[in-house]
Specification:
about 110 residues; Helix Hairpins; 4 helices
Amino acid sequence: MTLQEAQARVDAWIGTVGVRYFGELTNLGILMEEVGELSRIMVRRYGEQSAKPGDLDKDLGDEMADVLWVLLCLANQTGIDLTEALEKNFDKKNVRDADRHKNNPKL
């Protein structure tokens, strides 16, 4: 599935099952919640924080998909074509960071 297809599928789902989009600021808050849930799993699975019962049983991919879902909603709501935005972002990074990482002794 391409990003354009994903944006279209989310929009179709919102228009049928979801009834309507939440407001942009509400979705921004939901995005932060979803990122927090992803963070909780990551810091317990890969970081030093100890896990509580059930923390390590969570599906990391599902949590990432939740983040992506809300980001796709926000893109649709604000008229952003994420494929185009990502292409521009690659172009920016290729120019700005062409030698930056190669010359980083920490890497």
